[in-house]
Amino acid sequence: MTAYLLKRLLIGIATLAVASIVVFSMLEIVPGDPARLMLGMNATPDAVQALRDQMGLDQPVIVRYFEWIGGLLTLDFGKSYTYSVPVLDLVTERVVVSLPLALIALALSTLIAIPVGIFSAERRGRAADTISMGAAQIGVAVPNFWFALLLIYIFAVWLRLVPAGGFPGWSAGIWPALKALILPAIALALPQAAILARVTRSAMLEVLGEDYIRTARAKGMPRRTVLWRHALRNAMIPVLTILGLQFAFLLAGTIIIENVFYLPGLGRLIFQAITQRDLIVVESVVMLLVAMVVVVNLLVDLSYAIVDPRLRTNR
Q1: Which residues touch 207 (CB under 8 Å, ≥6 apart)?
Q2: pLDDT for 142-197, tens place per residue?
């Protein structure tokens, strides 16, 4: 077990190191002067030189890279040129929107997908299986922003049950804040639930064909016990893999949904930083999201060891 965890931890550290090089290289491969790009072509030479000094562009590349890494390790992400505040302050303000949104969407996706996948696998080849997997195929094919627009029209414009966009802040109360996140979470969860349901069905079908499942049924074990206690646990490895990938996507890939619902999250922050050419914010926030994804994948690897006893015995 210790060797397994150590190996996964080293892989995560190596991934962060490679990702930091790739993200930092973004400023180096941008055509022209990054300071000129951020200020615009009409900026004065003095303003460009001042920003170059602020960004340390007059120093060698290797020096700037290690200074940037040192800043990230000490939670010094630099200062935003557009907002004139530390990037860490911007991240702190936005993560309280994106993280709850991702968690709610992941919970909805899991609660929908796993029962549907088990239901479909148990009724393989029947009408119920065809209907559920057909609905899942539609969910995979339709983009989440279309679901978002449809949900806004039905529940915000027509029924007037929830707001169409914006975020009042957690200081306004838990329920008003959650109401603002319900529609975005559903729009994010539906396509992810469709993918997860198909994966769950495939994993369950593979497990249900094993000898120990037939033996359990031959012994007269209740159907629910066979499905939920024996089959599902042994089918959880691919399901956990998809859950980890989905959570990483929900953290880093909510740019469109946050713009549709006008949510002040990390996705919208990245979009605004790109449009405003605030490269310091872009590289720092992207690196932070990479670190979050690595941590999530490490937690998924730990869950493998919980589900599969063979990993705990280093076999």
Answers
A1: 213, 231, 234, 235
A2: 888 888 889 999 988 888 888 888 888 888 889 999 989 999 999 999 999 999 99
Backbone angles phi, psi at 293, to 5 degrees: -65, -40
Tokens, residue 146: 């279309």
Domain count, the chain: 2
Whose structure tokens read 């200020």?
39
What are the φ and ψ backbone dihedral angles of 60, each rounded to 5 degrees?
-60, 155
- C-alpha 179/C-alpha 181 separation (Å) is 5
| pTM across the whole model | 0.83
Q: Is residue 159 part of a domain?
A: yes
The answer to the question of residue 125 being in a domain is yes
Task: Judge whether 84 lies within some domain.
Answer: no
CA dihedral 167, 196, 298, 90 (to 10 degrees): -20
8 A C-beta contact, residue 187 and residue 259: no
Q: Buried b vs exposed e over 68-107: b needs ≥16 C-beta within 10 Å?
A: bbeebeeeebbbbbebeebbbebbeebbbbbebbbebbbe
